[in-house]
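Human: Not sure, check this?
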Amino acid sequence: MKITFPHMGNIYIPLKSFFESLEVEVVVPPPCSKKTIELGLKYSPEFACLPLKINVGNFIEALENGADTIIMAGGVGPCRFGYYAEVQREILKDLGYEFNMVVLEPPRGHFLELFHKLLTITNKRKHTYMDIIKAGKLAWEKAMLLDELDVLACKARPREALTGQTDKCYRIAIEMIDRTKEISGIKQLRQEIKIMFDDIKTRVESNPPRIGIIGEIYTVLEPYANLNIEKQLGEMGAEVYRSIYITDWLRHNLLPSSLKPREYKMLLEMSKPYINCFIGGHGQETVAQVARLAREGFNGVIQLLPFTCMPEIVAKSVLPSASKKYSIPVMTLVLDEHAAEAGFRTRLEAFVDMINHKSEVESLDEVFTRN
Protein backbone atom coordinates (compact mmCIF):
# COMPACT_ATOMS: atom_id res chain seq x y z
CA MET A 1 0.00 0.00 0.00
CA LYS A 2 1.26 3.46 -0.97
CA ILE A 3 -0.90 6.24 0.42
CA THR A 4 -1.19 9.88 -0.51
CA PHE A 5 -3.20 12.93 0.54
CA PRO A 6 -3.72 16.50 -0.68
CA HIS A 7 -1.49 19.43 0.21
CA MET A 8 -2.78 22.05 2.63
CA GLY A 9 0.08 24.14 3.94
CA ASN A 10 2.51 22.04 5.98
CA ILE A 11 -0.03 19.43 7.06
CA TYR A 12 1.75 16.86 4.87
CA ILE A 13 4.57 16.70 7.43
CA PRO A 14 2.54 15.40 10.42
CA LEU A 15 0.48 13.17 8.10
CA LYS A 16 3.61 11.68 6.57
CA SER A 17 5.08 11.19 10.05
CA PHE A 18 1.91 9.48 11.30
CA PHE A 19 1.71 6.90 8.54
CA GLU A 20 5.45 6.26 8.31
CA SER A 21 5.51 5.61 12.07
CA LEU A 22 3.03 2.83 11.33
CA GLU A 23 5.29 1.46 8.57
CA VAL A 24 3.03 2.59 5.74
CA GLU A 25 4.71 3.87 2.58
CA VAL A 26 3.76 7.47 1.80
CA VAL A 27 3.81 9.22 -1.57
CA VAL A 28 3.68 12.96 -0.85
CA PRO A 29 2.40 14.86 -3.92
CA PRO A 30 4.85 17.35 -5.42
CA PRO A 31 4.43 20.88 -4.02
CA CYS A 32 1.46 22.69 -5.60
CA SER A 33 2.52 24.28 -8.87
CA LYS A 34 1.23 25.56 -12.18
CA LYS A 35 1.17 21.97 -13.43
CA THR A 36 -0.96 20.93 -10.44
CA ILE A 37 -3.64 23.54 -11.09
CA GLU A 38 -3.59 22.88 -14.84
CA LEU A 39 -4.36 19.21 -14.21
CA GLY A 40 -7.12 20.12 -11.78
CA LEU A 41 -8.65 22.64 -14.17
CA LYS A 42 -8.62 20.19 -17.05
CA TYR A 43 -10.60 17.50 -15.28
CA SER A 44 -12.67 19.28 -12.59
CA PRO A 45 -16.11 20.87 -12.97
CA GLU A 46 -15.82 24.53 -13.92
CA PHE A 47 -18.10 25.64 -11.05
CA ALA A 48 -16.02 23.82 -8.42
CA CYS A 49 -13.95 25.96 -6.08
CA LEU A 50 -10.17 26.29 -6.17
CA PRO A 51 -9.39 23.77 -3.37
CA LEU A 52 -11.12 20.92 -5.21
CA LYS A 53 -9.24 21.69 -8.42
CA ILE A 54 -5.86 21.81 -6.70
CA ASN A 55 -6.63 18.61 -4.79
CA VAL A 56 -7.48 16.78 -8.02
CA GLY A 57 -4.15 17.92 -9.43
CA ASN A 58 -2.41 16.69 -6.24
CA PHE A 59 -4.00 13.26 -6.58
CA ILE A 60 -3.17 12.87 -10.26
CA GLU A 61 0.48 13.75 -9.63
CA ALA A 62 0.65 11.35 -6.66
CA LEU A 63 -1.02 8.49 -8.56
CA GLU A 64 1.40 8.99 -11.42
CA ASN A 65 4.22 8.66 -8.84
CA GLY A 66 2.96 5.28 -7.65
CA ALA A 67 0.35 5.98 -4.99
CA ASP A 68 -2.54 3.50 -4.81
CA THR A 69 -4.52 4.73 -1.79
CA ILE A 70 -5.89 8.25 -1.27
CA ILE A 71 -6.68 9.65 2.17
CA MET A 72 -9.26 12.43 1.98
CA ALA A 73 -11.10 14.30 4.73
CA GLY A 74 -14.87 14.46 4.78
CA GLY A 75 -17.12 17.18 6.14
CA VAL A 76 -20.55 18.06 7.48
CA GLY A 77 -22.96 20.91 6.99
CA PRO A 78 -23.90 23.10 4.02
CA CYS A 79 -20.32 23.49 2.69
CA ARG A 80 -19.71 21.55 -0.54
CA PHE A 81 -16.50 20.14 0.94
CA GLY A 82 -18.58 17.31 2.43
CA TYR A 83 -19.04 15.64 -0.95
CA TYR A 84 -15.74 16.62 -2.60
CA ALA A 85 -14.22 13.20 -1.92
CA GLU A 86 -16.98 11.54 -3.94
CA VAL A 87 -16.60 14.02 -6.80
CA GLN A 88 -12.84 13.50 -6.82
CA ARG A 89 -13.27 9.72 -6.74
CA GLU A 90 -15.50 9.78 -9.83
CA ILE A 91 -13.19 12.16 -11.72
CA LEU A 92 -10.15 9.94 -11.12
CA LYS A 93 -12.03 6.74 -11.96
CA ASP A 94 -13.26 8.25 -15.23
CA LEU A 95 -9.61 8.99 -16.04
CA GLY A 96 -8.80 5.30 -15.64
CA TYR A 97 -6.83 5.38 -12.39
CA GLU A 98 -7.03 2.35 -10.12
CA PHE A 99 -6.89 3.27 -6.44
CA ASN A 100 -8.63 3.00 -3.10
CA MET A 101 -9.99 6.15 -1.47
CA VAL A 102 -10.47 6.29 2.30
CA VAL A 103 -12.62 9.19 3.50
CA LEU A 104 -12.00 10.21 7.12
CA GLU A 105 -15.19 11.88 8.29
CA PRO A 106 -15.18 14.10 11.40
CA PRO A 107 -15.70 11.57 14.24
CA ARG A 108 -18.14 13.83 16.14
CA GLY A 109 -17.37 11.79 19.27
CA HIS A 110 -17.28 8.37 17.55
CA PHE A 111 -13.54 7.88 17.86
CA LEU A 112 -13.66 4.08 17.59
CA GLU A 113 -14.98 4.38 14.03
CA LEU A 114 -12.05 6.65 13.14
CA PHE A 115 -9.58 4.28 14.82
CA HIS A 116 -11.06 1.34 12.92
CA LYS A 117 -10.56 3.12 9.61
CA LEU A 118 -6.96 3.95 10.52
CA LEU A 119 -6.31 0.35 11.52
CA THR A 120 -7.72 -0.79 8.18
CA ILE A 121 -5.35 1.56 6.33
CA THR A 122 -2.32 0.50 8.37
CA ASN A 123 -3.05 -3.25 8.43
CA LYS A 124 -5.12 -3.91 11.55
CA ARG A 125 -3.58 -7.34 12.13
CA LYS A 126 -0.17 -5.78 12.64
CA HIS A 127 -0.98 -2.63 14.61
CA THR A 128 -2.93 -1.86 17.74
CA TYR A 129 -4.80 1.16 19.04
CA MET A 130 -1.73 1.99 21.16
CA ASP A 131 0.43 2.05 18.00
CA ILE A 132 -1.97 4.59 16.47
CA ILE A 133 -1.95 6.71 19.64
CA LYS A 134 1.87 6.74 19.72
CA ALA A 135 2.09 7.72 16.04
CA GLY A 136 -0.60 10.33 16.61
CA LYS A 137 1.32 11.91 19.48
CA LEU A 138 4.42 12.39 17.32
CA ALA A 139 2.32 13.83 14.47
CA TRP A 140 0.56 16.18 16.92
CA GLU A 141 3.83 17.43 18.37
CA LYS A 142 5.10 18.14 14.86
CA ALA A 143 1.88 19.95 13.97
CA MET A 144 2.16 22.19 17.07
CA LEU A 145 5.80 22.98 16.31
CA LEU A 146 4.93 23.82 12.69
CA ASP A 147 2.29 26.27 13.91
CA GLU A 148 4.83 27.86 16.26
CA LEU A 149 7.27 28.09 13.35
CA ASP A 150 4.72 29.93 11.20
CA VAL A 151 4.12 32.45 14.01
CA LEU A 152 7.87 32.98 14.45
CA ALA A 153 8.35 33.53 10.71
CA CYS A 154 5.51 36.05 10.47
CA LYS A 155 6.95 38.02 13.39
CA ALA A 156 10.51 37.95 12.06
CA ARG A 157 9.90 38.70 8.38
CA PRO A 158 8.83 42.39 8.66
CA ARG A 159 11.63 43.05 11.15
CA GLU A 160 14.58 41.36 9.40
CA ALA A 161 17.50 43.61 8.48
CA LEU A 162 18.47 41.48 5.49
CA THR A 163 15.68 40.31 3.19
CA GLY A 164 15.52 36.54 2.92
CA GLN A 165 16.96 35.64 6.34
CA THR A 166 13.60 34.53 7.69
CA ASP A 167 12.76 32.40 4.65
CA LYS A 168 16.14 30.68 4.88
CA CYS A 169 15.62 29.84 8.56
CA TYR A 170 12.08 28.70 7.78
CA ARG A 171 13.23 26.22 5.12
CA ILE A 172 15.90 24.80 7.44
CA ALA A 173 13.38 24.41 10.28
CA ILE A 174 10.88 22.63 8.00
CA GLU A 175 13.52 20.10 7.00
CA MET A 176 14.52 19.55 10.64
CA ILE A 177 10.92 18.93 11.73
CA ASP A 178 10.29 16.58 8.81
CA ARG A 179 13.38 14.50 9.69
CA THR A 180 12.59 14.11 13.39
CA LYS A 181 11.46 10.57 14.22
CA GLU A 182 10.97 10.66 18.00
CA ILE A 183 8.85 12.79 20.34
CA SER A 184 11.90 13.21 22.59
CA GLY A 185 13.62 15.16 19.82
CA ILE A 186 10.82 17.71 19.43
CA LYS A 187 11.59 19.60 22.65
CA GLN A 188 15.25 20.07 21.71
CA LEU A 189 14.28 20.99 18.17
CA ARG A 190 11.87 23.65 19.46
CA GLN A 191 14.72 25.29 21.36
CA GLU A 192 17.06 25.12 18.35
CA ILE A 193 14.48 26.75 16.08
CA LYS A 194 13.83 29.54 18.61
CA ILE A 195 17.57 30.26 18.88
CA MET A 196 17.87 30.27 15.09
CA PHE A 197 15.11 32.88 14.75
CA ASP A 198 16.44 34.94 17.68
CA ASP A 199 19.73 35.20 15.78
CA ILE A 200 18.08 36.90 12.80
CA LYS A 201 19.37 40.46 12.65
CA THR A 202 16.58 42.99 12.96
CA ARG A 203 16.19 46.64 12.08
CA VAL A 204 16.87 49.08 14.92
CA GLU A 205 13.37 50.56 14.91
CA SER A 206 10.59 48.31 13.75
CA ASN A 207 6.99 48.44 14.95
CA PRO A 208 5.11 46.83 12.06
CA PRO A 209 1.35 46.99 11.63
CA ARG A 210 -0.43 43.75 12.50
CA ILE A 211 -2.80 42.20 9.98
CA GLY A 212 -5.06 39.21 10.62
CA ILE A 213 -5.81 36.68 7.88
CA ILE A 214 -9.28 35.13 8.12
CA GLY A 215 -11.55 33.12 5.85
CA GLU A 216 -11.82 29.70 4.22
CA ILE A 217 -9.29 27.32 5.74
CA TYR A 218 -7.65 25.99 2.57
CA THR A 219 -6.96 29.41 1.08
CA VAL A 220 -5.69 30.60 4.48
CA LEU A 221 -3.29 27.66 4.96
CA GLU A 222 -2.07 26.83 1.43
CA PRO A 223 0.57 29.33 0.17
CA TYR A 224 0.08 28.36 -3.47
CA ALA A 225 -3.64 29.09 -3.28
CA ASN A 226 -3.19 32.47 -1.57
CA LEU A 227 -0.15 33.55 -3.65
CA ASN A 228 2.11 33.49 -0.58
CA ILE A 229 0.19 36.29 1.09
CA GLU A 230 2.05 35.95 4.40
CA LYS A 231 5.42 36.36 2.70
CA GLN A 232 4.20 39.24 0.55
CA LEU A 233 2.76 41.15 3.50
CA GLY A 234 5.90 40.48 5.52
CA GLU A 235 8.04 41.94 2.74
CA MET A 236 5.80 45.03 2.85
CA GLY A 237 6.58 45.44 6.54
CA ALA A 238 3.41 43.93 8.06
CA GLU A 239 3.22 41.26 10.75
CA VAL A 240 0.67 38.60 9.86
CA TYR A 241 -1.40 36.35 12.10
CA ARG A 242 -3.76 33.68 10.78
CA SER A 243 -7.17 33.05 12.29
CA ILE A 244 -6.61 29.29 12.02
CA TYR A 245 -3.60 26.97 12.11
CA ILE A 246 -3.12 23.24 11.49
CA THR A 247 -3.77 22.26 15.11
CA ASP A 248 -6.89 24.45 15.24
CA TRP A 249 -8.29 22.59 12.23
CA LEU A 250 -7.56 19.23 13.86
CA ARG A 251 -9.17 20.28 17.16
CA HIS A 252 -12.30 21.59 15.44
CA ASN A 253 -12.71 18.44 13.34
CA LEU A 254 -11.67 15.74 15.81
CA LEU A 255 -13.33 16.95 18.99
CA PRO A 256 -17.11 16.86 19.59
CA SER A 257 -18.77 20.18 20.42
CA SER A 258 -18.86 19.37 24.15
CA LEU A 259 -15.07 18.99 24.28
CA LYS A 260 -14.06 21.96 22.15
CA PRO A 261 -12.01 24.64 23.94
CA ARG A 262 -13.96 27.23 25.93
CA GLU A 263 -12.15 29.97 23.97
CA TYR A 264 -13.58 28.59 20.73
CA LYS A 265 -17.13 28.67 22.09
CA MET A 266 -16.61 32.23 23.32
CA LEU A 267 -15.32 33.19 19.88
CA LEU A 268 -18.48 31.93 18.19
CA GLU A 269 -20.54 34.09 20.56
CA MET A 270 -18.94 37.17 18.94
CA SER A 271 -20.54 36.27 15.59
CA LYS A 272 -24.12 36.09 16.89
CA PRO A 273 -25.06 39.73 16.29
CA TYR A 274 -24.48 38.98 12.58
CA ILE A 275 -24.67 35.19 12.08
CA ASN A 276 -26.30 33.19 14.87
CA CYS A 277 -26.11 29.67 13.45
CA PHE A 278 -23.73 27.28 11.70
CA ILE A 279 -23.58 28.11 7.97
CA GLY A 280 -20.89 25.63 6.98
CA GLY A 281 -17.13 25.89 6.64
CA HIS A 282 -15.69 28.66 8.82
CA GLY A 283 -18.29 31.31 8.01
CA GLN A 284 -19.21 32.00 11.63
CA GLU A 285 -15.58 32.09 12.72
CA THR A 286 -14.72 34.55 9.95
CA VAL A 287 -17.15 37.13 11.31
CA ALA A 288 -16.20 36.48 14.92
CA GLN A 289 -12.49 36.87 14.14
CA VAL A 290 -13.02 40.48 13.04
CA ALA A 291 -14.31 41.32 16.52
CA ARG A 292 -11.51 39.37 18.24
CA LEU A 293 -8.70 40.85 16.16
CA ALA A 294 -10.03 44.38 16.65
CA ARG A 295 -10.13 43.87 20.42
CA GLU A 296 -6.56 42.55 20.37
CA GLY A 297 -5.31 45.71 18.67
CA PHE A 298 -4.77 44.50 15.12
CA ASN A 299 -4.56 47.21 12.47
CA GLY A 300 -6.40 45.43 9.66
CA VAL A 301 -8.01 42.18 8.52
CA ILE A 302 -7.95 40.36 5.17
CA GLN A 303 -10.58 37.77 4.31
CA LEU A 304 -9.55 35.05 1.86
CA LEU A 305 -12.06 32.85 0.08
CA PRO A 306 -12.22 30.73 -3.06
CA PHE A 307 -14.61 31.90 -5.76
CA THR A 308 -18.15 30.50 -5.18
CA CYS A 309 -17.50 29.56 -1.50
CA MET A 310 -20.99 29.84 -0.01
CA PRO A 311 -20.15 30.12 3.74
CA GLU A 312 -17.55 32.83 3.13
CA ILE A 313 -19.84 34.74 0.74
CA VAL A 314 -22.43 34.86 3.52
CA ALA A 315 -19.77 36.04 5.96
CA LYS A 316 -18.52 38.63 3.47
CA SER A 317 -21.98 40.21 3.29
CA VAL A 318 -21.87 41.21 6.97
CA LEU A 319 -18.18 42.10 7.27
CA PRO A 320 -18.72 45.78 6.37
CA SER A 321 -21.03 46.13 9.39
CA ALA A 322 -18.53 44.38 11.68
CA SER A 323 -15.70 46.48 10.26
CA LYS A 324 -17.60 49.68 11.01
CA LYS A 325 -18.65 48.59 14.50
CA TYR A 326 -15.14 47.62 15.57
CA SER A 327 -13.34 50.38 13.62
CA ILE A 328 -10.98 48.03 11.83
CA PRO A 329 -10.33 47.97 8.06
CA VAL A 330 -11.37 44.71 6.35
CA MET A 331 -10.49 43.72 2.78
CA THR A 332 -11.86 40.66 0.97
CA LEU A 333 -9.79 38.81 -1.63
CA VAL A 334 -11.57 36.21 -3.79
CA LEU A 335 -9.20 33.58 -5.18
CA ASP A 336 -9.48 31.31 -8.19
CA GLU A 337 -7.26 29.96 -10.96
CA HIS A 338 -7.28 33.37 -12.67
CA ALA A 339 -5.78 35.27 -9.72
CA ALA A 340 -2.69 37.16 -10.93
CA GLU A 341 0.15 38.00 -8.57
CA ALA A 342 0.70 41.51 -9.97
CA GLY A 343 -2.85 42.70 -9.31
CA PHE A 344 -2.95 40.79 -6.03
CA ARG A 345 0.22 42.50 -4.78
CA THR A 346 -1.07 45.92 -5.82
CA ARG A 347 -4.15 45.45 -3.67
CA LEU A 348 -2.04 44.29 -0.72
CA GLU A 349 0.27 47.30 -1.05
CA ALA A 350 -2.69 49.67 -1.14
CA PHE A 351 -4.18 48.04 1.95
CA VAL A 352 -0.91 48.24 3.90
CA ASP A 353 -0.43 51.89 2.83
CA MET A 354 -3.95 52.70 3.99
CA ILE A 355 -3.32 51.06 7.38
CA ASN A 356 -0.03 52.92 7.82
CA HIS A 357 -1.70 56.22 6.93
CA LYS A 358 -4.55 55.52 9.36
CA SER A 359 -2.05 54.79 12.14
CA GLU A 360 -0.15 58.01 11.43
CA VAL A 361 -3.34 60.07 11.57
CA GLU A 362 -4.39 58.42 14.84
CA SER A 363 -0.94 59.09 16.33
CA LEU A 364 -1.15 62.76 15.37
CA ASP A 365 -4.64 63.00 16.88
CA GLU A 366 -3.31 61.61 20.16
CA VAL A 367 -0.50 64.20 20.19
CA PHE A 368 -2.89 67.09 19.56
CA THR A 369 -5.28 65.75 22.21
CA ARG A 370 -2.56 65.61 24.86
CA ASN A 371 -1.40 69.14 24.00
